[in-house]
## 1
Amino acid sequence: MDKSFKVKVNNTFDFDISEAELSNLDTLQTSKNGYHILQNNKSVKAEITEADFNNKTYQISIRNHIYKVSISNKLDLLIKDMGLSVKTAKQIDFIKAPMPGLILELHVKVGQEVKENESLLILEAMKMENSISAPRSGTIKSIAVKNGDAVEKNQLLIEFEN
């Protein structure tokens, strides 16, 4: 299955880029943040001047022009469609399935203290293993699934204590 990415530049231009298109780029890292890119016999030098890996946003300098770029994959878009984001994650008291799938592994138990971004479980969906992480630090109040369970989109998976 081909992965694709939604790329937004300067909050104005939207692009869909496939994994195949990315593999056709000839890139060479020339410094810690510098890259030489060759595509369709056109050469471009780019430098990543700022990077926010958690939000998948970057500021890139090409030919003395600055571009703000955000990159999203299918899971990021599903999470956004559900109304979840880094800004709202601190208020979340439960985790719901972002898509239908199969629970492969549970990494937590009821009463366990977890830290923000700690892996809670592995959900297999569309032949991909997706790690579902804690949106905030807290204590696990209940777990509504077990290993091997098939889940539907928006089904309750884990609840946090308030």
## 2
Amino acid sequence: MSYVLLDCEINEKVATVTINRPPVNPLNTQVFKELYEMMEELEENSNVHVIIITGSGEKAFVAGADLNEMKDLDTVGIMNMNEVSRATFSKIENLSKPVIAALNGLALGGGLELALACDLRICSEKAKLGFPEVGLGIIPGGGGTQRLQRVVGQGKAKELLYFGEMFDAHTALELQIVNKVVPADEVISASVEWAEKLSQKPPVALRMVKQAVTSGANMDLDSGLVLEAMCFGNAFATADRKEGIEAFVEKRKPVYTGK
């Protein structure tokens, strides 16, 4: 597929995907479709171990859905757009590879939904986040009501969703919505640093951790423990497990092959 609204750079096992709709990178149907297709391509690319998603420019990661597209849609049209958005966020959430959101600016509405679908979030100290949808007479439709409460708890999620007010990066850190806050000019470099560290880890073990945590979050404890045991067994059966343990015993750096 040819990408018009996305840029992708692959370097040292790390793919950096940039949503390129300046100045605020709003999400429209084409962006969703391109993101879905690019995630599928990167999933199949054995040279990519970690993915970073960010926005172009310095003003916004993603400042929400494209209201210019939404305002002219009828009920069927908006449901179709919503279906595409939910499929894209679920694709990102369920990739076998770690995905880092580099929040270089505003992350509002669909932009925050996109960030919540990623595994880790590194945020500019100048960023503002929020779900302003209720003030527009709508609600988040890309998973925001569900993923947010799994991070901050139901009470705090309702507060943020009901009032729809923007909050700053340090509040997002306190609420554990983001993992790390850095100066604005260090967002990409900090994300790359994390991605490069992750790219050196055994990929099957990372995949099993992600599956155990992501899928286990939607299970009761006993079912989650069964899933964890299965993922543990899958990781233990790899050559990388043998290499990792032998390297530790021999006090040397392991060389992982992804097998």
## 3
Amino acid sequence: MKKILLVFGLLFSFSLFKTGEVQASEVADTVYYDLKKGGTQEFITSDPEGRTMHIVVEEIPGISLFSLNNGSYRISGKKTGLWEASYYISVTNETISRAYSPNAIAITGSFSSTYLGLDSNKQATYYLGWKMGILNYNHYLRATIRSGFLSVTY
């Protein structure tokens, strides 16, 4: 009984020292989707904390008479046990012409904010403000076109 009271006492005292909001961001890692290869390409990596990150880039079937690099792609990411997010981009002549249909699901915690932006004609970013308790973390899925590749940074 004394141990239980001690643990609760320590937890309570630690909560007194937390003031305000904590901001943290993930270390950026990048995977590369080969536009010439196309199709669906999957990447599984892990962050510095050892949590698995699963990235999938999927070419949306369509007919393009001008270039193999024209078309639509679905960008999706899953941070195991925390969240899943996806969005679509339209690519024309190795530029991103549109970013649309964002979707985010919190597995644990919740999202305090989400925003899909077309940063330039070469880059689209899905910003994810993920919250667990009183702590807020900034995550993102960023797609960038670079010489025949679509890089996804998270």
## 4
Amino acid sequence: MSKIIFDSGISLDGFFAGDNRGPNNPMGGVSGQIHAWMFQQKAFWEHLGMEAGQEDGPDGKFIRATIERTGAYIMGKRMFEEGEASWPNDLYKADVYVLTHEEREPWVQEGTTTFYFINDGIESALNKAKQSAKGKDIRIQGGANTIQQYLQAGLVDEFFIHIAPVFLGTGIRLFEGIDNNTYHIAIEEVVPSTLTTHLRYRLTRK
């Protein structure tokens, strides 16, 4: 049975992205600080179809495992717009459901990635993603607002966060405004690493 998950990097003071995000400034320019651990891993670049990265260690296992378990993705319009111009073809290798008010025909890429544009809310996107996932998990890819919507609706089963040892001081917080009465939260796994700390949490509705 599919789980609803997200897997996100944040700064030590809880920021998911910097200020002034946009297609010309993805993640507000802080990706290199938050995701430095990931950029070191060969597994990350393999997924992009490139040979790069300096390490192929335990951090890479997290990347491969998350990719393997994911059968469909959901993201917000802002994240899609930031990546549309620069993502390589067939990055996601699965169906991606984009939450937007824009009406647009599906974008079918070469390979196995198709972007669908959903105009009727988060639960509609989730139902469609479940059909695509075929028993694998649905990953709420981002941005922070999209993750927050699914958290607030009580729909998330599990999440990973990767905490970078950096203070950003300003930006977009991942857990801004989350209702503390929605879930019971259990720590499932804590794995320290050189450039991040991996934490996995299991959520159940109160």
